[in-house]
Structure formats: C-alpha cells, structure tokens
Design a protein that fits this description.
The chain is α/β, with parallel strands linked by helices. It contains 10 helices and 11 strands. The longest helix is centred in the first third of the chain and has 15 residues, at 71-85.
Length: 315
C-alpha cells in the first residue's frame, strides 16, 4: 500500500490517503485521546469501502462508490499503522481499538467478517477491541448473523463494541438523514437482544445530534432495554455535506461543560448516556466521523471550523 498524502498531528490524530493493490484510493486514521498516552489507548479507523453508497446527510464520504476493499486491502491499512508504531507486531496498548468506520458501511462488505475472524491471531494485542458502527441497512442479515458468531467465538467479556447510528427517534427524519432502506427500530432491538451477553459492553445507540432532530426516550424504551443499550450523543462534526444540507449541531463542541436537557431526560428514563466530545483539533485535521479529506481537497469553498491542516504529499 502506497501512502500518497497525510494530514494531522502525531500527538492527536493522523489521516492517511493511500493507494491499495487494486489501484483505489482509501483513507485511514490513527488517533490518541490526550492526556492518555498511546500505551493507554490507541484508536485506528479503517475504510471498508471505496466511497460509500449510503449518502448520509452529514457525511463527506458519501456521494460516490467504487467498490469494496478485500480482506488483504483492509489489513494493509491496519498493518501500515501497526508497522509504523509497533514494528514487531506486539501492541502493548491497554486498549487497541480498531473502528471499521472511516469510509463505507461495514455491513455491506462481507470481507470485514474475515478480518474480524483473523484479527486476534494476527497481532499480539491483549487490549484489542474491534468496533463496528452501522446504520443497519436492509438485507444485511447474513452479515450480522455471522458477526454474532464471531463475537461469541473471539470477543466475549467486553472485548467488542457494537454501535448503531440512529441520530433521531423521528422515523421520517431518520429516513431523510440516512437515505437508504434499513432495519426498523424493532429489528435493531431484537438483534441487540441476541447480540448482548452478560459481561459484554452495552450496545451503543449513536446520535450525532443536529438541531431539530428529536430524541424521545418513550420511543426508545419501546425497543431498547437500558440494561443492554446505552446512548452516545456527539456533536455534528463540520463537514461539507452538513453545510450543504443546512445542518447545525445541537451539541457545542467547544463547550464540554454545557448542560443539555436531553441528557437528563434520557438518564431519568434509565439509560446510561455518554456525551462524547473529542479533541476539537481533530475537526481541523479532518479525522473525525463524517469527515473525508478527499472531499475537502476537491471543495471550492473551504469550511472555517474544519479541515484547516495542510495535506502533505508523500514522495
């Protein structure tokens, strides 16, 4: 895999634009979470598609789709980063989190399952924790049934993170925000009941909250047991797609101390709620969820609060 360009800060996050063996360009990311050192937590985000066919209203990675990386092309992304930081393949991090979430919907690429099956034997990484984040497209039952088997075989006891992005409890707005046929809340809840086992991490329901996107706990309680599901609320990151669709974040990424009524309401309903506000610098780097450097490089008018780091070509 040949790296063509990079952007970022080695002490926070780095984005890599690279060419795969099939000649496609792909992006992947590594990050830490200051003040935690890399040995405490190291996060790697890999792409599972060349582009993405979903087209979520806030995500710059949508809009074009050129196919799916093979297992080897997904591993090449991870291998590059592991080789850079830990060339002997021994990864001493207390948490080594691999998120299949940079570019593409992982459940639409069955090769992701092959990667998950092989991961525990490929590296010496006691802190390994894969993370699948999905919008649960329709027709992906084969993927998720096999994912459950792989989790049971390899990642019990809290060593796997499963996340489903909902973004709102208004079904019409959800369809508008995530414009693809997808599982209903009922289907997601039923699968979650099968997926969760004692000792597992709770299943995460993601809400990248835009203004005007309601989150109603009475709706959630109809489908998602607080003993098995938790709520993660994040800002809407600065992206070109969000700007084009006039989306404004409900969460202020510059004010981690601000109190939000919706969090208290969800907690009163019995849910564990995580308000996840990462390093603001990652917005400037372009390493956060929904951001995509190649979309930035082709833009006519830049975003003021995102993608401000120089993209450096590698020779």
């Amino acid at each position: 895999m040949k790296v063509h360009a990079t952007a970022g800060n080695e002490d926070i996050a780095m984005v890599y634009i690279a060419e795969t063996s099939s000649g496609h360009l792909v992006e992947y990311v590594e990050s830490v979470q200051p003040p935690l050192p890399r040995e405490k937590k190291w996060v790697v985000l890999v792409s599972t598609m060349f582009g993405c066919p979903i087209g979520c209203l806030m995500c710059d990675a949508g809009g074009y789709y050129h196919g799916k990386p093979t297992k080897d092309e997904i591993f090449a992304q991870i291998d590059f980063l592991v080789g850079k930081r830990f060339p002997d393949g021994k990864i001493p991090c207390e948490q080594f989190k691999i998120q299949f979430a940079r570019m593409g919907e992982p459940s639409l690429n069955l090769q992701v399952l092959d990667v998950l099956q092989e991961l525990p034997r490929r590296y010496h990484a006691p802190g390994l924790m894969p993370s699948i984040s999905t919008v649960a497209p329709a027709g992906t039952e084969k993927f998720f049934n096999r994912l459950l088997e792989i989790k049971q075989e390899n990642y019990m006891g809290g060593h796997f993170q499963f996340q489903v992005s909902l973004h709102t409890t208004d079904f019409g707005l959800r369809d508008h925000f995530i414009p693809v046929n997808k599982w209903s809340f009922g289907q997601i809840g039923e699968y979650g009941e099968r997926f969760y086992a004692a000792g597992d991490r709770k299943i995460t329901l993601n809400f990248a909250l835009a203004q005007g996107m309601p989150v109603d706990p009475t709706v959630l309680l109809n489908y998602f047991d607080p003993d098995r599901f938790l709520i993660k609320i994040t800002p809407l990151n600065p992206t070109y797609r969000a700007r084009e669709n006039d989306l404004v974040s409900y969460i202020d990424p510059l004010s981690a101390e601000q109190k939000y009524e919706i969090i208290q309401v969800l907690q009163d309903a019995g849910y564990q709620v995580i308000l996840s506000i990462g390093e603001t610098e990652e917005n400037y780097i372009g390493s956060n969820c929904g951001q995509y450097l190649r979309r930035h490089l082709s833009a006519d008018e830049p975003i003021n609060d995102g993608y401000t780091y120089q993209v450096k070509e590698c020779r």
